[in-house]
């Protein structure tokens, strides 16, 4: 699995990630969502560089021009609900993309043990398509693995790009064995998971910070 860590080079992306982590800024829910949206736009731009392009003839008011355009739009496969802001940012760049939505969540057995439940999945045919699997927090890697397996009933993509804000080193290692041919895009990599399976230092629960706290089932 190829890993592209966009924080290795200085850019505005680092500013936005820093603000997402900052407890003094997290209280501004609109700004939190907007920063995730901006990161989604930056990632869409970077991913587009590795997608297939074609030359087309474009009629201008004064003549013809040979221009470059994407050969195809990707499928944005987004894990609900935390991925919605990143999805919105990426969709504003890949504005003709098809979309898939997946409900995947942790069902806790006790304080430290949980299962990943994939409860809802709506997807177009992904066979031989370029799929961007969006999940802001790559913690254990189990949600992405199970979600991708669930998507495979809709076909086998030609390319898989996993897109996350923050990934744990352990989650990355886990996915290396599961998604060998994928490309992982991250805005930051953190070294640790705590006993509850949350990224440290991370930023907290991206879904709750974006949309409000949820009741546990």
Detail the poorly predicted runs: none
Shape descriptor reads: globular
Number of domains: 1
Which class best fits the helix and strand makeup? Answer: alpha/beta
CATH class: Alpha Beta
What is the typical, i.e. mean, pLDDT?
92
Strand content: 25-35%
Order of H and E elements: EHHEEEHEEEEHEHEEEH
Largest sheet features: 8 strands, mixed
- Second-tier CATH architecture: 3-Layer(aba) Sandwich
CATH topology: Rossmann fold
How many beta-strand elements? 12
Rg (CA only): 18 Å
Q: Helix share of residues?
A: 25-40%
Q: How many angstroms does the end-to-end distance come to?
A: 34 Å
Q: Tally the helices: what do you get?
A: 6
Describe the overall structure.
The protein is an alpha/beta fold and 217 residues long. Strand 4, helix 3 and strand 5 form a beta-alpha-beta unit. It is globular. It has a single domain, classed as Rossmann fold. The model has no long low-confidence stretch (mean pLDDT 92). It is 30% helix and 35% strand. The longest helix has 20 residues. The protein contains 6 helices and 12 strands.
């Amino acid at each position: 699995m190829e890993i592209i860590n966009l924080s290795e080079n200085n850019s505005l992306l680092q500013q936005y990630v820093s603000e997402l982590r900052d407890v003094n800024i997290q209280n501004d829910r609109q700004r939190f969502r907007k920063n995730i949206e901006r990161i989604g736009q930056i990632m869409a731009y970077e991913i587009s560089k590795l997608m297939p392009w074609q030359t087309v003839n474009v009629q201008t008011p004064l003549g013809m021009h040979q221009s470059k355009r994407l050969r195809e739009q990707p499928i944005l496969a987004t894990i609900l609900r935390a991925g919605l802001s990143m999805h919105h940012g990426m969709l504003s760049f890949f504005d003709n993309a098809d979309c898939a939505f997946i409900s995947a969540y942790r069902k806790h057995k006790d304080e430290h043990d949980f299962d990943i439940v994939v409860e809802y999945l709506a997807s177009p045919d992904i066979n031989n398509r370029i799929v961007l699997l969006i999940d802001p927090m790559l913690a254990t890697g189990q949600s992405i693995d199970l979600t991708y397996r669930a998507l495979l009933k809709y076909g086998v993509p030609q390319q898989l790009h996993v897109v996350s804000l923050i990934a744990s080193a352990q989650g990355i290692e886990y996915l290396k064995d599961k998604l060998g041919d994928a490309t992982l895009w991250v805005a930051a990599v953190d070294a640790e998971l705590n006993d509850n399976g949350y990224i440290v230092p991370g930023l907290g629960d991206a879904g709750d910070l974006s949309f409000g706290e949820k009741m546990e089932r």
